[in-house]
Amino acid sequence: xxxxxxxxxxxxxxxxxxxxxxxxxxxxxxxxxxxxxxxxxxxxxxxxxxxxxxxxxxxxxxxxxxxxxxxxxxxxxxxxxxxxxxxxxxxxxxxxxxxxxxxxxxxxxxxxxxxxxxxxxxxxxxxxxxxxxxxxxxxxxxxxxxxxxxxxxxxxxxxxxxxxxxxxxxxxxxxxxxxxxxxxxxxxxxxxxxxxxxxxxxxxxxxxxxxxxxxxxxxxxxxxxxxxxxxxxxxxxxxxxxxxxxxxxxxxxxxxxxxxxxxxxxxxxxxxxxxxxxxxxxxxxxxxxxxxxxxxxxxxxxxxxxxxxxxxxxxxxxxxxxxx
Amino acid sequence: xxxxxxxxxxxxxxxxxxxxxxxxxxxxxxxxxxxxxxxxxxxxxxxxxxxxxxxxxxxxxxxxxxxxxxxxxxxxxxxxxxxxxxxxxxxxxxxxxxxxxxxxxxxxxxxxxxxxxxxxxxxxxxxxxxxxxxxxxxxxxxxxxxxxxxxxxxxxxxxxxxxxxxxxxxxxxxxxxxxxxxxxxxxxxxxxxxxxxxxxxxxxxxxxxxxxxxxxxxxxxxxxxxxxxxxxxxxxxxxxxxxxxxxxxxxxxxxx
Lengths: 324, 256
Known about the structure:
heterodimer, A: alpha/beta, Rossmann fold, five-stranded parallel sheet, 27% helix, 29% strand, elongated, B: Rossmann fold, 2 domains, nine-stranded mixed sheet, two-stranded antiparallel ribbon
């Protein structure tokens, strides 16, 4: 029986799906008779707090204009005050950009162990243990937290747990406050929308995605031609955009665009979770990669292990022939 | 302006046959090439550019085995002025908290305006060392920077948040920033460049010399390869055959 706090992340003013995935993880860790709690930070949160109270037993709400934008320093100070007052056996947060920013410093200030990016979690002898991926997803690791008097913390991979369905039971909503005398050394200046590109890949039904395996900018023409043959839009994983070969508006991933196509054909992409996190709606996923141990083959529907410089032109020709 | 940049030597897994060593239950990295962590390369470049713009000194620091000296020499060749090497058997399987503690101890008594880290390492991939180090140093911090400039006693940083958005924040110096790939174009490092810094003295400190108990808060129990069999149907045959089979699959799925 345990009490588990989940950090409910807000993205563009909405509760992120990760909150309901973490509720599933939290219920399992809480056990019979245990309690799940949500921590919600931001401003004008009344409606979001009510939404969370349909799933969590308790909702701790920090409603403050100074928290309007996620901010590692302010959010960390607020959560630290809560965690030093209330006893939670474990805190779970999604392994997202903002939580990578917030959780490590909070763990040090609380003196609690922090497991990173877990896909499984369990108690063993009262200590939090997990499974996570390392080496870009090619290897898995079993990790365990050292015994802690200050509770345990973990960040959790998106999609690792199925989302819990909110019910009608109303949990208790409690108002919390930033500690008095909070003096920020970091200030949010503005939020930047991505530059509107000529294409909107988020709405495309078919996508051909190109990754690091393409090696050089001049080789992009190969995958462009395949995309044309398939009537697909071209998109990319991060390394191609980092090099400036394609615009940021074509980058699929947790730090890029979220897409929900019916067909996703990944060429020379290893399949890091940051990339896969941007692919929603379970498309038919095809992977072409010369590295058999690339994690993308673990999630694709169908794969070709081979040299993309041979496979892609051959595939383009075959598709053109098949489509007449 | 005094800048510290944290770097790590990591194995290169691209196209390698992976095997778990049965006794140690760790990935067998003995036959793998190794080099600077990709994110750290961008961090070194960012540090050197700030020095070029504002003057001052860049110190590269690593926690790693003897061979990790390579990545320090590389940072020196890119324009770092000094290097610090924390090396001890006790750091095998170090968790982010232990690495952050070792870095913090190594920096004691060394004034700095800015600490830069790669946002993630390609081996451990937690992304947690930078934030932990910032808390230990008690300086403000921001993760996943895609742009960075310094104005007076402030750092102006653009960083990645959720939903494909970026946010611009201002930090009071001294501060710590973790750097995302693509923030700049790291300069080329030639063999000649490395040779030129071969004579630079790099102090090496052990855990004991730093007064560091090699305690971990997260233990690595074992590594294992993801279960095979799960995942994609791998098409077999020569190029024409696999392409033919793929076209059939696409047609069945209405993808043509």
